[in-house]
Amino acid sequence: MTTKTKTAILFAVLAAGCYGVSAPLSKLLLTKIPPALLAALLYLGAGLGMAAITLARRTAPGEGSEARMTKAELPYIIGMIALDIIAPILLMFGLTMTTPANASLLNNFEIVATSLIALLLFKEAIGRRMWLAIALVTASSAILSFEDISSFSFSAGSLLVVLACLCWGLENNCTRMLSLKDPVQIVAVKGLGAGTGAFLIAFAAGELQGDAFSIALALLLGFFAYGLSIYFYILAQRELGAARTSAYYAVAPFIGVGLSLLVYRQSMTASFLIACAIMLAGAYFAAVECHAHWHAHEAMEHEHRHSHDDGHHNHQHDQPVKEHSHLHQHEVLVHTHAHTPDLHHTHSH
Hints:
This protein is mainly alpha-helical.
């Protein structure tokens, strides 16, 4: 496993850690702020925070080390924002027709949806060990969601929850197609776009309620739990691809449950310990996966942050440079090495 891969796994876990705190802390804020407005504030907190960072960086040296999004990425940008608006709507309608236990369990389908869409639509390579890891991670998350097996039933509400998961799975893959671009800019656009959409929904539903202090806390929580989480998630996707990042990101519910045990003084259950053991097994198979074979890189031209020590960026500069971003060309290259399905390794198998 390369240093870049290890770093990407760390980013995925950090993303899960940031998002994992959102559920227990949001539960506290729901006593002051309606659900639709809270969702809007969390996204807007992420977007506004990252927009402020973007403005601050414009006067800082090295601002050009990340590539900016362009019109070429517009379909993925629109898809990312639209899906982040549609998915919560489907989930909210689903919750009105099914039980919270059903919804919590079915939400784990997002991991499977992300992986299947990555494989079928975006042709991302997923090996046997990775499929086993995804299955174990999904099973552990399902165990964590079960409170009473007799309460589970499939209904029209359940179908809407599954459709929401499909939307988020497709959204994860749209974000992956943007992962070579500036992650701060991506989060700013995503947060402001989805936040504005959610705010309009809250306005239409008559849910514009809440005191100034609670709203400020919600915006702050959104910056950390959504903004930083998405930022680290994008950095992980650069190296790992959509399916693998989703598998590591699935530790978020465990972090949320662990925090809930502390905040709400709940006792640790046997199902939580069993789910943790299965999750660790899934993480092991994801970590030990090794994918290496002869493969060809086609000639292409694009822009993103890169260095010249990865065996893929062999163009010359007049002076030695560190990591940087500019428009550059890749010549045809055939070689073999261990690799993950990043956007430089989209070859077929």
